[in-house]
Amino acid sequence: MPDEPATTIPAELLHVADWILLNSTHDPFGRRCRRCQDPGTAQTMPPQPVMPSRASAIRLPGGKVDLLMRWRIERGGSRYFRMARMLEDLLNESRVRGWAACQGTLDQVKLDAAMLGWAEVPIRRGGPAVATLRPVDPAEAAPNSLSARYGKGAQPLHTDGAHLPLPPDIVILTSAAPSTTPTCLWSRKRYSGFIGGLPDFVQHGVFLVSSGNDSFFTTAVEGGRLRYDPGCMMPCDARSRQAVQFFQEKEGSVVEHQWDKPNQVLLIDNRRVLHARGSAIHEPQREIQRISFYLNHEAS
Known about the structure:
Layout: H1 14-23, E1 36-37, E2 52-59, E3 65-72, E4 78-83, H2 86-97, E5 99-103, H3 106-116, E6 119-120, E7 130-133, H4 146-150, E8 170-175, E9 183-187, H5 200-204, E10 206-209, E11 216-219, E12 221-222, E13 225-226, E14 233-235, H6 238-250, E15 255-257, E16 264-269, E17 273-277, E18 288-294
């Protein structure tokens, strides 16, 4: 590796890189040292704790950025090591069942996403890309939201951003504190082995999506992607009403993600997985951070 990378770290990543330099000791973000690899030899970092002395970035084709950490080596000299990306690992893992989880923080998610060239997607028009999700009563909830209908109770399976012309590819939930309210997950992958995949009525039933002045008709499966949210999608024919019943029945066969540790990250493939919040009546103080993305073409 050259002593100095060709470009400095982008401005939007500077605060995160500074945090790394000030707070990391060998293992950035508290991960195991196997995460840091020499790009030339694929060898991992040395076993003893060492302090990084510099962070730089090199822009790559496709909008990606590689963050390189310069580490002091105890025996003298220094080298650059590429930080393996948490989101890249999670995305690869999610190809198996549609979601994946690990320890991490929202800042780490934003840094990795910027390096990978993922585009942030605000779920609500004019709103921020990062949303803090709290249990609220119907009177306090945004119109047409699931909270407006279900309040602090259990929510039905849904696609985030189903009211958008193109829902986000990936939804990421993070929680700094443990929570006793699970996130429920259901993947269409279990139907991939069947001829035709999902039932015909799921694929062809017509829904009217309520999206302000931009309402439109759609189906629950389009272009290989799932789109379903009973909060904003009204069934318009017999097949779509069957589809509603189908998804309701699937709530009995979900997998629960337990937020039983601090600083967790849950990546959900929003194109093929429906998710839902369990009842939060007993936990009104629950807070989950959500950020959604469109992937770049390479990652898709």
